[in-house]
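Exercise 7b. Backbone tokens:
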């Protein structure tokens, strides 16, 4: 039965720990492969992910490889933005995690499976989504697509004037337009209860939509470069993300 799943434990010199990850290998290994990396890969079985992937392989794209990277015990330090910690000092190992991805994981996959992956997507949930977006944004020659499910886009350098201190927003504002990049955003209307600016819209939705506005100012277009799914009643949980996952997988292979 496909996809075939192989699990690994790779010791990372950068992170000084063993990293567990699962590789879902497609039946068709001859066509040009797409590679999808997913943070918080330990949650995929709870989503029914293998059956989603099998359906995708059978109906539209038989050559998608997926690598589900399990979060480690220092998730709050390894996920984040590589160049900036948040105002509480979280994310101090995000740069090391980025190096693990680029210098250890990707070379391992290419060596183990004897192939190059010209089309790469990185995605994640909550802080894992922030991490994936940060890595894609800062390495546009390596990755082409980012998937952000309920992303922790509130991540900020200081707690005064939060709207002006959001790190990912600043990176986009100060960054360059890369025409090959594509972005998938998901947010739920019940992701949280907070409403910093008291505008009747929860912060999770505000942060997501304001980041998309900055991307549009850079030249990215909704429908072409940006896909957005707002889930009414959607929560900050695996069940909500599972409901959007088939749509995301279809986007990965078609965007």
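Sequence design result:
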């Amino acid at each position: 039965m496909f996809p075939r799943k192989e699990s690994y434990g790779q010791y990372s010199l950068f992170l000084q720990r063993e990293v567990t990850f699962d590789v879902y290998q497609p039946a068709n290994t001859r066509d040009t492969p797409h590679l999808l990396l997913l943070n918080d890969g330990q949650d995929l079985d709870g989503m029914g992910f293998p059956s989603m992937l099998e359906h995708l392989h059978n109906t539209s794209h038989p050559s998608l490889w997926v690598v589900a990277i399990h979060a480690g015990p220092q998730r709050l330090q390894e996920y984040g933005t590589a160049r900036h910690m948040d105002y509480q000092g979280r994310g101090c190992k995000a740069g090391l995690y980025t190096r693990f991805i680029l210098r250890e994981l990707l070379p391992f996959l290419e060596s183990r499976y004897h192939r190059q992956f010209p089309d790469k997507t990185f995605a994640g949930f909550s802080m894992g989504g922030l991490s994936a977006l940060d890595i894609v944004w800062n390495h546009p020659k390596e990755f082409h697509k980012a998937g952000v499910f309920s992303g922790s886009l509130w991540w900020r350098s200081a707690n005064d004037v939060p709207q002006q201190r959001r790190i990912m927003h600043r990176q986009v504002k100060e960054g360059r337009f890369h025409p090959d990049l594509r972005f998938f955003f998901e947010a739920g209307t019940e992701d949280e209860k907070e409403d910093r600016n008291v505008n009747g819209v929860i912060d999770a939705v505000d942060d997501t939509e304001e980041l998309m506005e900055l991307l549009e100012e850079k030249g990215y277009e909704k429908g072409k470069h940006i896909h957005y799914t707002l889930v009414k009643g959607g929560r900050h949980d695996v069940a909500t993300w599972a409901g959007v996952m088939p749509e995301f997988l279809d986007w990965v292979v078609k965007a």
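Instructor comment: Strands lie at 4-12, 17-25, 34-38, 64-69, 119-125, 145-149, 182-190, 226-235. The chain is about 40% helix and 25% strand.
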